[in-house]
Recover the amino acids of this structure.
């Protein structure tokens, strides 16, 4: 394989000069540099890549949720014209298993199939149709086994994995177990299986290297993590595996599951040719991880004034067949099980267990979203029992800076929860629709629906949510960035992947603000660069943005020191703005270009936030770097005869620390709310005995533009977190966490029904006309 092929496969840079020269720096609504390319269809996604001598891959997947593999016969596939290779687990030279913290998942199933769609073998052929036909021709003899699909049954079931069925158990204990409140409310809640549902299905290209290694061109959100994992599974040293990040078509979780990458690398090594795979929509649903379905039992104790005394909860997360990120998700669920409220006594038990259901993993707001829906339902029940307004019982209990979480960690970051709640409470309610045929489209179900105006009831609901920032429980958060300046152009080199969260735009703004250089470019990402970590929990705004800022400041010092020395002043007395360098007294005035005088300046810097610690055997510990909060008021119209729901309006107030890019921030919040609408009303990846039903966008209903409500961002609280670069907080996860709970609260208000399941089923929204 020549180097020319690898060059052909390399995606072009997706970042470049600003589109609007007048707007730059922190606080400006700088447009994303890739917006035009995405609009025109020229953005380089992995499915667009090509290389000379390309072969196509297809993966054979199990039709069973649980089965013993008796035999695998690939002879018929290998005899087909155009087929170049078939690989199974027997061809894996390395460790043969992978995972986030626990390496428990084989690249290909060997003795036992543990979930529907698990990979059995992969084929490389000279045409995609040939590859798929060859995969289908592989004869596999299965002995079907009874699947374990109820996570409650997993405790007593036979072990589904050599590591057993229990992945993690956290028994959080805080306060006095004998404490009892005057008022007690209980509830049982179920949260469904939400899919990340990327618009672009997984794709990738593997190119063998002359040194016996391989290059993987994939839409990875954690390139160095994926490289290390691939090297271990393929039996290669890390420096012989290179990940090149292609354009990522948005990510709300683990964008590129390693289960798609590893067969590609293995086939490329075996054939000596570049190999490409483009997943079908069904394969995408079968292959990647989903939000954890969760069963939650709650008991809230309060005094006669509505102030919380004790919260008791049991949380059961269905991890599916393998561990993935279930340990982290469980930690977030347990830690935030009481919500952004002051709780003197808390006793929460959480479990994550293996089943034969589809694998669960990292999806935006994991763990926190599930418990938010449950604890907010409990707050509604408490308000009803005490005869209080839902917002009033919340205000009497809200968390503030200096309070202590049930994990024993003190909230040291800004926590303006009461201010957020008051902002959405006081925002004017939308007018009621007129009862006229012209406004029929406003009915739940739309103009062609079965709804009648007389059966429609309006409900208003509230929810408060919280998420943690960065990794947790001792995760070493670090990112490295390099800033180079030459010939009036600044280049940022950082392995932080742009997943749609706006990091590439933010990096440009930081350099513009610090160096006064308008033309800033962000280099494509690969693993030849130092690690920056995964794109999750707002990491890159904080950690990678902090590294870019430090590197830019170092370059600024290199630029200003000669001038300061020449004029006998310190660099602190010089400022850069709009491409000009001036002194405080006006004696010095020159341009950045003139000061550079043809030189190349560069600097590399790291950012590493303060460390955290794992939760101990009682669920105690300083496990989180920081927290972000959100309040949402939902207004819904419900047809109480047929159970259809229309979300009329979502009012959002959010704790953002500092607004870095107003337009980008607005887009992130609106997108998070819309994803929350899907989780509340339509998105549920259904299974029958572990088998996915309708793994496509016909059976899995995403909210469309017609389903998106009016979203009003009524307040952004800019109280800067002093330990965060720029003082900013992550923006998109917390509205995803909070919105489903607010919608469920509004449906409860409209119908009088308990609404204890997400997504909300029509039968749960049907009520008597007098409700």
């Amino acid at each position: 394989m020549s180097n020319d092929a690898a060059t052909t496969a390399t995606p072009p840079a997706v970042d470049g000069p600003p589109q609007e020269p007048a707007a730059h720096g922190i606080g400006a609504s700088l447009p994303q540099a890739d917006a035009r390319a995405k609009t025109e269809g020229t953005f380089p996604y992995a499915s667009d890549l090509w290389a000379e001598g390309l072969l196509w891959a297809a993966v054979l997947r199990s039709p069973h949720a649980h089965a013993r593999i008796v035999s695998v016969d690939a002879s018929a596939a290998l005899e087909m014209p155009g087929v170049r290779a078939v690989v199974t687990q027997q061809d894996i030279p390395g460790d043969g298993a992978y995972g986030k913290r626990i390496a428990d998942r084989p690249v290909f199933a060997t003795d036992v199939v543990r979930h529907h769609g698990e990979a059995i073998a992969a084929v490389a052929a000279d045409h995609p149709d040939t590859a798929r036909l060859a995969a289908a021709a592989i004869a596999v003899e299965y002995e079907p086994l009874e699947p374990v699909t109820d996570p409650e049954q997993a405790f007593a079931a036979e072990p589904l994995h050599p590591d057993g069925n229990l992945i993690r158990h956290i028994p959080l204990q805080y306060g006095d177990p004998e404490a009892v409140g005057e008022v007690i409310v209980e509830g049982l809640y179920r949260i469904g299986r939400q899919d990340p549902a990327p618009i672009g299905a997984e794709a990738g290209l593997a190119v063998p290297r002359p040194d016996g290694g391989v290059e993987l061109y994939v839409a990875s959100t954690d390139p160095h993590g994926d490289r290390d994992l691939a090297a271990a599974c393929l039996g290669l040293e890390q420096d012989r595996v290179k990940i090149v990040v292609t354009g990522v078509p948005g990510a709300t979780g683990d964008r590129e599951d390693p289960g798609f990458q590893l067969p590609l690398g293995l086939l490329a090594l075996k054939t000596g040719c570049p190999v490409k795979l483009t997943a079908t929509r069904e394969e995408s649903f079968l292959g990647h991880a989903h939000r954890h379905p969760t069963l939650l039992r709650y008991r809230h104790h309060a005094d006669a004034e509505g102030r919380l005394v004790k919260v008791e909860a049991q949380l059961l997360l269905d991890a599916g067949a393998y561990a993935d990120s279930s340990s982290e998700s469980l930690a977030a669920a347990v830690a935030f099980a009481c919500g952004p409220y002051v709780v003197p006594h808390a006793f929460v038990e959480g479990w994550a267990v293996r089943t034969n259901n589809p694998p669960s993993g990292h999806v935006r707001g994991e763990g926190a979203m599930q418990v938010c829906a449950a604890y907010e339902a409990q707050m509604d029940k408490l308000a009803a029992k005490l005869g209080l307004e839902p917002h009033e019982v919340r205000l009497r209990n809200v968390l503030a800076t200096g309070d202590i979480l049930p994990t024993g960690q003190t909230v040291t970051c800004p926590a303006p929860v009461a201010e957020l709640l008051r902002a959405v409470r006081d925002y004017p309610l939308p007018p009621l629709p007129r009862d006229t045929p012209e406004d029929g489209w406003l009915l739940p179900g739309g103009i062609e629906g079965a709804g009648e105006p007389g059966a429609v009831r309006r409900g208003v609901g509230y929810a408060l949510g919280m998420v943690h920032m960065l990794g947790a429980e001792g995760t070493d958060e670090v990112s490295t960035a390099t800033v180079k300046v030459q010939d009036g152009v600044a280049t940022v080199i950082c392995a932080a992947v742009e997943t749609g969260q706006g990091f590439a735009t933010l990096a440009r703004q930081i350099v513009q603000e610090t160096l006064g250089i308008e033309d800033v470019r962000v280099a494509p990402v690969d693993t030849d660069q130092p690690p920056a970590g995964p794109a999750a929990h707002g990491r890159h705004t904080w950690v990678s943005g902090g590294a870019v800022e430090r590197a830019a400041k170092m370059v600024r010092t290199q630029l200003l020191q000669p001038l300061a020395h020449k004029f006998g002043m310190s660099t602190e007395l010089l400022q850069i703005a709009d491409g000009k360098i001036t002194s405080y007294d006006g004696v010095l005035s020159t341009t950045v270009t003139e000061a550079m005088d043809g030189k190349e300046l560069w600097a590399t810097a790291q950012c590493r936030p303060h460390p955290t610690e794992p939760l101990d055997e009682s669920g105690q510990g300083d496990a989180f770097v920081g927290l972000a909060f959100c309040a949402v008021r939902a207004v819904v119209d419900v047809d109480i005869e047929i159970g259809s729901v229309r979300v009329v309006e979502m009012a959002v107030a959010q704790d953002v620390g500092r607004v870095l890019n107003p337009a980008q921030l607005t887009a992130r919040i609106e997108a998070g709310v819309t994803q929350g609408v899907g989780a509340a009303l339509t998105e549920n990846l259904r299974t029958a005995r572990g088998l996915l039903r309708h793994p496509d966008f016909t059976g899995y209903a995403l909210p469309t533009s017609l389903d998106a409500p009016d979203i009003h961002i009524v307040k952004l609280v800019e109280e800067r977190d002093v330990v965060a670069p720029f003082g900013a907080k992550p923006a998109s996860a917390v509205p995803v966490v909070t919105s489903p709970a607010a919608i469920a609260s509004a449906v409860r208000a409209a119908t009088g029904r308990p609404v204890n399941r997400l997504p909300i089923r029509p039968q749960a929204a049907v009520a008597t006309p007098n409700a």
The first helix runs from residue 3 to 9. The chain is about 25% helix and 25% strand. Confidence is low (pLDDT under 50) at residues 1-22. The radius of gyration is 27 Å.
